[in-house]
Structure formats: C-alpha cells, structure tokens
Amino acid sequence: MSFDYLWDGFSVALSLQNLLIGLIGCFLGTMIGALPAIGPINGIALLLPIAYTMGLPPESTMILLAAIYCGAEYGGRISSILLNVPGDAGAVMTALDGYPMARQGRAGEALMLSGLASFTGGIIGATGLALFAPVLAGLATGFGPAEYFVLMVFAFATLGSMMGARPVKTLIGCVLGLMLATIGLDATSGAYRFTFGEPELGDGIEFVVLVIGLFSISEALILLEKQAAGTEIIRGLGRMTARLSDIRRGIGTALRSSGIGFVVGVLPGTGASVSSAIAYMTEKRISDRDGSFGKGDPRGLVAPEAANNATSCGAFVPMLTLGVPGSGTTAVMLGALMLYNIQPGPTLMTDRPEIVGGLIASLFIGNILLLALNLPLVRIFTRVLTVPNWVLVPGILVLSIVGVYSTHASAFSVLLMLGIGMAGWLLRKAGFDMAPIILGFVLGRVMEVNLRNALAISGGDLGILFESTISIVLWIAAALVAVMPLVLGRRLKRATAPEARIPDAEARIPDGEDRAA
User: Fold this and answer.
1) Are 333 and 342 in contact (CB under 8 A)?
2) Is residue 302 within 8 Å of residue 253, measured between CB atoms?
3) Average pLDDT value for the chain
4) pTM of the model
5) Are the C-beta atoms of 74 and 33 separated by less than 8 Å?
6) 3 state SS of 193
7) 178: part of which helix (H) or strand (E)?
8) Rounded to a whole number, what is the distance in angstroms from the first to the last CA of the chain?
9) Judging by beta carbons within 10 Å of its beta carbon (0-12, 13-18, 19+), is residue 468 exposed, middle or buried?
10) Residue 64 neighbours by CB under 8 Å, 6+ apart
C-alpha cells in the first residue's frame, strides 16, 4: 500500500495558511461543542458559506471543517462534565461519570483525563483512517439493513452492564426510550403514531430536545431544589492534573474504546451517540468489578471520550472512499466538496490526493493542536463550578432554550423540552437513570427502520436476519454478551459459597468450647 498521498497531504496541511486555518477551526470547534444543542453539524453548516465565499481552495476548506468537527467532539465534554449538560449527542455518556467526578471536587482531573482520552481516540482514529480506509470501506458495503438490525441487537444485549442494583428501573427506562422513538410519522406505512393530533410531533421528538430536557432542564431543577433545601453544593475545583494511577488504568480502556469508536464510525448512519454508548457499556462489562461506574469512575469517562473522537475520524472512511456520508456532519462536508465540483468516491484518492491526504494529515495535526489548546484551559473551564446558583441555573436554562430554538426555530420544541425536563426531574427523584432512556431512544430508531427495511427486502422472511456472515457473527457475539455474565456470576457464587459457610459454622459453636478442637 502506497502512502505517497499521505506524505503529500502533510506538506499541504503544514503550510502556514492551513496551519492557521486548522488552529482557528480547532478553537471554534471547541467553543461550538461546549454550547449545548449546537454541535458540529450546525457549526459546520453555519461556517461553510463563509469559508466558500472567502475563496479558500477545497483542501483548506476541508481542513477547516475537519478541525471544527474534531474540536466540537473535544468541546462537548466541557459542559457535560461541569454542568451535566451534554454539548452534543456524543457527550451524553460522558456525563455519567464525568459529572459525578466534578461533584466530588475532581473537575480539573476529569477535564484533563477526558482531554487525554479524546487525543488518544483522535490519533488512533486518524491512524486507522490512513491505514485501513480502503479495506474498511469494503467492509461497510457489506452492512445492509439486516446487519444493522443485528448490530443494534448486540448493542441492546450489552444493556445488562448498565443495570447495576436497579435492573427493573433500567429496563423501564430503556422501554421508555423505545416508546419515545416510535413517536411521529411511520416512514413505511405513512401513518402518524402517538402524535395526539399535534402536527409538530409528525417528525418525532428530536434528539437534541430529548437530551437537553432530560439532562440540563432536570439538572437545573435539581440545583434549585437543593438550593431551596439548603443542601450544600460541592464547588471544589480539585487538582488541575490527572492522577498517574487513573492514566495507567485508563490506557486499556482508551485503546479498546478507540477501536470500537473507529469501527462504528465507518458504518454509515451510526455516529458518536451509538459508539460512545457501546464503548461505555462494553467497558463497564469488562472493568466494573465494584459497581463504581456511574459514580465517578475515570474509566467510565475515558471510554466514551475516546470512542466519540475515534468515530469522528472513522466517519470519513465511507465519505472519502464511497461518497456516502458516515454521519450528519460528514454529509455537510460532502456537500462542501460538491460546491467545488468534486465528487467523492473510489477515485478521489487518485484524482485529488491533496484533498484526501491533506484531510487525513490535518486530523493528526488537529488533535495535537486540540490537546495543546485544551490542557492549559482546564483551569479556566473549571471556574464554571464557582459560579453561584442564581447565575448558573438561569444560564443553563438560557443556553438550553436558545440552543433548542436556534436548532429548530420552533416554540413548540422549547415547550416540549421543558415538559421532558419536568418528567426527567420526576424520574430522577424516583431513582431512574437517564442513560437507558437515551440508549433506547437512539438505538430504537435505527433498529426499527432497519428491521422494516430488511423485511421489506425479503418479503417478510425473517431468515434474512441470519443469512450473512456478518449477521451470524453479531448474533453469536450478542448471545455471548448476554449469557456470559450470568454464567460467570453463578461460578463466582459457587466459588465464594464455601468461604461464606465457614464463619456461619464457627458462629454456631457455643462460647467456652474449644474452637481449635
């Protein structure tokens, strides 16, 4: 395999103009990602016309957009960790352990650790893009509706890792997410489902509305409740560097999650929300021996952060090699190429190597720039925790409302978000976790659409779900993931049973008798 295109790409990306463009893109992307509900797709859509009218060459425009994309994945963690307000879909899972770390006075550690995890995921993703783009593009073409459905079954099979001590509430939350995913127009039959005659619900509940409602609005209400009750809210900033022990423990997590994120990113239509959920649940299954995930475990922070940054790189594989966008953001970038009358596809690497090579090289350079930008700014980011509640709560509400309204330009979406926030507040008070609801919502939509499409192709024959090698491998993996914890749990119970009986036997010996006998 020749890497001449990549070396040429570094000469393009390292030019003074493109370095400056990449630095600006990284900074803007970080700020865009930190703002709730904006996300990389909206930031790129807003800045694309500006870049085009400035007369930038196509390779410089792609470097700018790629820097914004990767920067937004970094920035999404900031509000997620500090305020429990995910900056974008990929940062939802980051809040599960990142926010508890901030509440424990470890905000600086969490931001530093997430920055290192994001860098690891970004570099591994860029390396995978450079090495395996043609091969993985061929693998992606083997994924049809049936394979996507089985992939979602595998994702749901890992749900057991999120159950913890409240399995019933976890399952109820997942079912709620699945139910919310069915609201709106049925693309197959054209029927409206569960809209109650409200036209605004015809397109279903938007992901941004659901996430901001469940997380930021409910969090604002909880902060107000604690303030009214006189409960002390932790504002400690803690140390500004990550512990060496946490870094060592997180290396394996980062490597595994980066691999998961990159492979999921290659599959068109999945995205960071799916990859971060799968990576988090997989790591919880592997590493959570003491039930610390969800309570501020650094590995629970590293897993989604490494995964979503690797996913952003993996999403370029189908776009550059097949002309098929791997995510909504790369769909906008695909349109940017078409503005320059450039058609992505199998010949792009040979016809315009400076674009492909420059883009891939900029991902390596951009991740280095982002690490250099983000680590020194940790102390500034953590100052958010020192803001008093009378400023913080209105700020969260304003950011949430402006973010949702700017995205959908609908007062109904704002009201729906507030209603979901109230429901989320009640669910959290009742002991429900928000993560299973989000998981059911995200995976449920993809699962239903692909099942319907697969059955439409086969004429209703369920055998299509078991025909391909990819489907069979995923079915076996799902079965193992679902069954192995039960088997291991029983074996562990049997192994510890004799140890548990010894103290009981000793306890029955009356006082005064010779225990040695």
Assistant:
1) no
2) yes
3) 78
4) 0.66
5) yes
6) strand
7) helix 167-181
8) 75
9) middle
10) 21, 22, 24, 25, 47, 51, 56
In this predicted structure, the answer to whether residue 10 has a pLDDT above a threshold of 50 is yes
Q: What is the pLDDT of residue 510?
A: 46
Phi-psi region of 376 (alpha: psi -120 to 50; beta: other; left: phi over 0): alpha
Residue showing tokens 């370095």: 19
The stretch 296-310 carries a mean pLDDT of: 90
Give the pairing type, strands 192-193 and 184-185: antiparallel
**What's the pLDDT at 502?**
43
For the record, the structure tokens of 432 come out as 């429900």
- pLDDT value of residue 505: 42
Instruction: Please compute the mean of the pLDDT values over residues 133-162 and round it to a whole number.
Output: 70
**Interval 28-57: pLDDT, tens:** 888 877 765 566 776 776 677 677 777 788
3-state SS, residue 432: coil
pLDDT at 360 over 70: yes
How many Cβ atoms sit within 10 Å of the Cβ of residue 150?
Answer: 26
Longest pairwise C-alpha distance within the chain: 95
pLDDT reading at 141 higher than 80: no
Taking the C-alpha atoms of residue 124 and residue 261, their distance in angstroms, rounded to an integer, is 10
Residue 325 has pLDDT above 70, yes or no: no
Residue 459 vs residues 45, 143, 192, 225, 469: alpha-carbon distances, Å: 39, 19, 23, 54, 21
DSSP 185: E
**Per-residue pLDDT tens digits for 220-247:** 888 777 666 554 454 555 666 778 888 8
Q: What is the phi/psi pair of residue 192, to 5°?
A: -85, 130
Reduce the DSSP state of residue 136 to 3 states and report it: helix
Q: Give the span between the Cα atoms of 165 and 128, in whole angstroms.
A: 38
- How many whole angstroms separate alpha carbon 82 and alpha carbon 215? 12
Range with the poorest average pLDDT among 54-58, 270-274, 454-458, 469-473 = 270-274
- What tokens does 143 get? 């994924």
The answer to whether 80 touches 435, Cβ cutoff 8 Å, is: no
Cβ atoms within 10 Å of 483's Cβ, excluding its own = 12
**Rounded Cα distance, 59 and 46, in Å:** 19
Alpha-carbon distance 46 to 468, whole Å?
A: 41
Closest CA relative to residue 409, chosen from 37, 54, 88: 37
CA 185 – CA 195 distance, rounded (Å) = 9
Residue in 219, 220, 311, 217 with CA at minimum distance from that of residue 262: 311
Q: What is the b/e burial string over 418-433, where b = at least 16 CB atoms within 10 angstroms of the residue's CB? A: bebbebbbebbeeebb
Cα–Cα distance, 225 to 393 (Å, whole number):
11
User: How large is the angle between the packed helices 328-339 and 58-83, nearest 10 degrees?
Assistant: 160
**H helix count then E strand count, the chain:** 22, 2
Q: What is the pLDDT of residues 483-508, one digit of tens each?
A: 765 665 566 456 545 444 444 444 44
